[in-house]
Design brief:
Blueprint lengths: L2 H25 L4 H29 L11 H20 L18 H11 L1 H10 L5 H28 L6 H23 L1
Helix pairs in contact: 1-6, 1-7, 2-4, 2-5, 2-6, 3-5, 3-7
Length: about 190
């Protein structure tokens, strides 16, 4: 995977965190200084879970001792499958059914907010797991880590600012764009593996 793929994945996940934090801050506004700390924590936890997913994917991917690229295409299809699953999981609450996106009280205390950031990072972990089948963490550590830190931090903080001001976003459009970005990146990985 190229650095561009990691940047695009980070932006897609950052968009989902922007929508999440906008909902949370709209329901229970937090001071900007607390929001800055929450966004930084969210970014660190998300980047750590993404890298942990890549590391686990590296251990699980299919390869031969003499030819690590022997199963490049099946590994890329696993990444595509994980990306499709995460995209569907992210889109489901926004598709107008009975399930509505949840909002969390960001004033609930440090431990609860930390647990919330870990729970919110499951999509990043799953995407990292899929990316680990096509990219080595040792070779792409900085490419995986820094875009995720920066995108999640900036976009989640932007979401907090939007929520405090009660700015209305069009969450379905944003989430569809985020899901399409993920799917196109995974399809590109499959094409490049061929």
């Amino acid at each position: 995977m190229s650095i561009v793929s990691f940047i695009v994945i980070a932006i897609a996940l950052g968009i989902s965190f922007m929508l999440l934090m906008q909902r949370c801050a709209d329901a229970a506004p937090v001071p900007l200084s607390s929001g800055l700390l929450i966004s930084l924590t969210m970014a660190v936890v998300q980047a750590a879970l993404f890298c942990a997913g890549i590391s686990l994917g590296n251990m699980l991917r299919f390869e031969l001792p003499g030819d690590p690229e022997a199963f490049a295409r099946p590994n890329a299809f696993i990444f595509l499958g994980m990306s499709l699953f995460v995209a569907a999981k992210m889109l489901w609450p926004y598709m107008g059914g009975k399930t509505k996106p949840a909002a969390f009280d960001l004033n609930a205390g440090t431990l609860r907010v930390l647990l919330f950031t870990v729970a919110a990072g499951i999509n990043g972990f799953l995407l990292g797991l899929g990316a680990g089948f096509v990219a080595s963490l040792a070779a792409h550590l900085h490419g995986a880590l820094w875009p995720m830190l920066v995108a999640v931090f900036l976009l989640s903080y932007l979401g907090i600012m939007y929520g405090r001001q009660h700015v209305k976003l069009r969450p379905r459009r944003w989430m569809v764009a985020s899901a399409l970005i993920l799917i196109v990146t995974a399809i590109a990985a499959v094409v490049n593996a061929g």
